[in-house]
Design a protein that fits this description.
This protein has 10 helices and no strands. The chain is mostly helical and about 200 residues long. α7 (about 130-140) packs across α8 (about 150-165) and α7 (about 130-140) crosses α10. The longest helix has 17 residues, at about 175-190. It is elongated.
């Protein structure tokens, strides 16, 4: 794809934050909605997770305790956040985030596991299917629309190394994430391309 080759060529030639930001304009890439996705600067330590375990908020399996749904002494914020997670059917995803905070590699929930690593260590990266899809194209010139656990296992370390070897990328991880997220979405939505596994 001409767009992808030109984008990655310019990304490779980028020498500054300004060069990276110019890619959004040059390639008509949408910026992340800051109201929906503000820069995430919170950190969750192992000690905080252990305290949740001690207070039976989290089970031994790293899940939120189902009894939270009946607790009346939660703060209003805790109730609201629990309700949103419940409504989205995401209660079971918490265990993958917690496993990532512990530094345990899961066999499932790779995106949330890596997200947990990021929440406990800002030197880690947020990596989702779109970012990985774009990176796989950059690395192997292959379009893979359906990213699965196998792809995470094969490419996550290569992606991390690619970021950390380049000071411009390493110092602007959130911009790289934003660019590759949008490029990966474009790859997935391109109906004219052959879907490969």
């Amino acid at each position: 794809m001409k767009f992808l080759d030109e984008f990655f060529n310019d990304l490779t030639l980028s020498k500054s934050k300004e060069d990276l930001l110019n890619l959004f304009i040059k390639f008509n890439i949408n910026r992340r909605n800051r109201d929906k996705y503000p820069d995430l600067e919170i950190n969750i330590s192992l000690e905080e997770i252990k305290k949740l375990e001690e207070n039976s908020i989290i089970t031994n399996e790293n899940n939120l305790n189902v009894l939270l749904a009946k607790k009346t002494d939660l703060t209003t914020l805790e109730k609201l956040l629990y309700a949103v997670v419940w409504k989205n059917g995401d209660l079971i995803k918490i265990k993958h985030i917690i496993s990532g905070i512990y530094g345990n590699a899961g066999t499932t929930g790779k995106v949330f596991n890596q997200f947990g690593r990021f929440l406990s260590n800002k030197d880690e990266l947020i990596i989702d299917q779109h970012v990985l899809r774009a990176f796989i194209y950059f690395k192997d010139k292959e379009i893979i629309k359906n990213i699965n656990n196998k792809h995470f296992d094969l490419f996550t370390n290569d992606y991390k190394n690619w970021i950390y070897k380049n000071d411009v990328y390493k110092n602007n991880k959130n911009i790289i994430d934003e660019l590759l997220f949008e490029v990966g979405k474009k790859i997935k939505s391109n109906k004219g391309e052959k879907n490969r596994k």
